[in-house]
Write a structure and sequence with these properties.
Helix 1 packs antiparallel against helix 2. The chain is mostly helical. Helices cover 41% and strands 0% of the residues. It is flat and about 65 Å long. The longest helix is centred in the middle third of the chain and has 16 residues.
Length: 74
């Protein structure tokens, strides 16, 4: 029949469940770049700029990536 498209959903989908954020990365003591990022993160926290706090965490993690995890044997 013309004019009949796909059936519309009339009820909302269930909410997305997000986990708690992980712990903040701890910068190594001997890295000046990470020390600056940690200081910026502290200033952003004090100012309530949670987006910047998250950005600093990402940059610290990216600057010192963890070694890749080994695959489990089956």
């Amino acid at each position: 029949m013309p004019g009949r498209g796909p059936k519309q959903q009339t009820v909302p989908e269930p909410p997305i469940v997000l986990g708690l954020p992980g712990e903040e990365p701890k910068p190594p003591d001997d890295c000046q770049r990470c020390a600056r990022l940690a200081a910026q993160r502290a200033a952003a926290k004090a100012g309530g700029d949670w987006s910047r706090v998250s950005d600093c965490n990402v940059l610290i993690r990216a600057h010192h990536p963890r070694p890749p995890r080994r695959k489990r044997r089956r």
